[in-house]
Structures are given as C-alpha cells and as structure tokens.
Amino acid sequence: MGKVIKKIQDTKRIINSIDFDAHWYRRVFHTFGASFLIYYMLPTDIYWINFLKSWMPLIIVIIVIFLEILRLKGKISSDHFFGLRVYEKNRVGSYIFFAVAILILLRFFPQQIAIPCILCACLADPIMGEIRKRFRIKYVYISGFLICMLFFIVTWYKADVRLLLITSIIGAIGAVIGETKKFWFIDDDFMIQMIPAIMLLIIWFCIPYLGFSYPDPIIYQGVFGW
Amino acid sequence: MFLGGKSKMNKEDMDFIKKGNNYSKLIRTEILFTPILIILPITVSILLIFDWYMRGFLENNTIMYNGELIIGIIILISNFFFDIPFIKSLKAFSKKNN
Q1: How many domains does one find in chain B?
Q2: End-to-end CA distance of chain A
Q3: Which one of A6, A16, A79, A146 would you mutate to disrupt binding with B, by most B Cβ within 10 Å of its Cβ?
Q4: Is B79 within the bounds of a domain?
Q5: What is the mean pLDDT of each run of 10 residues along chain A (226 residues)?
Q6: Which positions 26-85 of B are in contact with A (Cβ < 8 Å)?
Q7: In terms of residue numbers, what domain contains B76?
Q8: pTM score, two decimals?
Q9: What CA–CA distances, in Å, run from A7 to A2, A4, A59, B17, B20?
C-alpha cells in the first residue's frame, strides 16, 4: 500500500510540474509573438529582403497549419506539442489562431492598426492572464483596458489628440471584449487581435471624413542603414 | 481515496503520464524552443531601441522615432517579466528530475 501511495504522489508531482512549466511556456510563447514586429523594419527596396518579407510569414503559417492538420489526424503525436491545453487535444490549437491573426494584420492592415493589436495579443493577453490568476475578474477588465489603451496611445501618438482618444478607447474596448468573451468556435488569441483591428479599420476609413489626417507610421524601414 | 478533493487527477492525465516517453518528449520540445522564444523578442526590442538611437537621437530626430523607443522598451520589459519565471521554472524542473 505504501508503494502505491508513493507512486501516486510521484505521478501527481510530475503532473503538477508539467502544468507549472506549461503555464509559463504559454506566457513566453505569447510574448515571443512581438518579434514579428521586425516585419516593419525590413526594407522593401532590396529584392531578396522584400521577397522574404512578402512570403516568409505566409510560409511559416502554412507550415504550422500543415503540422496542426497532421496532429489532429493523429499522424504526429500531441506529445510533441508542449503547452497545449487539454481541450485543445482534439481541436485546432490556439497558436494557429494566434499566427493567422498576426499574418492577417501584417499583410492587410496598416501598421498603425496592426502594431497595437499584435501587442495586445502578445503582451496584454498574458498580463491579463496573470492578473486573472491572482486577483478578481473586475481587475482583469480594468487593467486589461488600461494596458491595451497604452498600446494604442503609443502607436497613435502622432495623430490628432481627439483621434488618439477615440482610437485608443475603442481599440482597448475591442481588445478587452476579444480577450474576455469566449466563443466555442474561435480562440480568444484571434479575437483579441481582430475585434479591435476591425473596429479601428472602420475608423481608419472614416478619418478623411472626420476631418483628420492619417498619422505617420511608428516603425520605419531600414534598420542598419539598409 | 488518496487523491481526493481539488487535486484529483483524471484518467486521461494518468494514462498520459503512464505512456513511456511522453514526459521527456514534451520537455525536449520546450527546451528546444527556449533560446528562440527568449532571444528573438529581446533582439527585436534592442533593434528598435538601436534604430531610435541611430536615426533619432544621433540625428536630432527623436520625435519621429520615439514610438520605436517606447515599443522597444515595452517589449523588452514585458519579455523579462515573463522570461525570468519561465527560466526559473525550467531550472526547478531540471533539478527535480535529476
């Protein structure tokens, strides 16, 4: 009996340590997504760099989707995918939604919209997750709103103050809704990026009619003198 | 009886652990990605700050590049914020299993 108890306790300890590691691993995986902002630093006037810039994000996403299809079909074991949640074992993993949303933002949205939305998913999401773990839910909404608003203010600081306020408040509301509202068919990693992006895109098209001018970009091409 | 209450493991978890190499496979994947997950965002944030310094600060054009500086600092700080507990957990895990 003593051996059985010890065996069960050991197994429990192992599972707990996996949970602990996976938790921080998921957080770091989120913050890693901010690296994709390098996209805006790469120049478009050098052919091979422009070629990579145009195709690499798409190729990466296609490879990831291909691996995910193989995983869901059972050709690759889920054991190789560290950090997957239990409910993701038989459905599309959240990292696919995360990657697809980043790809859409990089390719089809102006950087003034894409950058804060990517930062919301990469940085605000894990911070809100940590706050959710430690404090009450209302603090998640408040702090999430403030953090997301900060990202929109930083990205739109070159715009007119009224436009800056409109975009940062609407963008932050969209991001908080995207993060906190759960949909069974789509992951919050997708929604936290796409809801504010679509809301801001509508504002973006209205900017000339509202009497404002478009703000300058934040990240400029050509680091290292390229 | 022994695993009552909140800490009760479900059958799925037990079966998962029972399967031979699962544990080491998972951790291998994690360790394999660790350098990229940590180094790449820090590199990008340093590049942004470097660009602000080279084209903004040295050329007296900081207003235009201040956004790059702030985004670089935000990425750097938040990465450290999550990287440190992640590395600690990895270290604690390796100690526990050696």
Answers
A1: 1
A2: 70
A3: A79
A4: yes
A5: 70 55 80 91 87 88 87 73 65 85 93 94 90 84 92 91 94 90 78 93 93 90 68
A6: 26-27, 29-30, 33, 36-38, 40-41, 43-45, 47-48, 50-51, 55, 64-68, 70-71, 74-75, 78-79, 82-83, 85
A7: 42-84
A8: 0.81
A9: 9, 5, 46, 12, 15
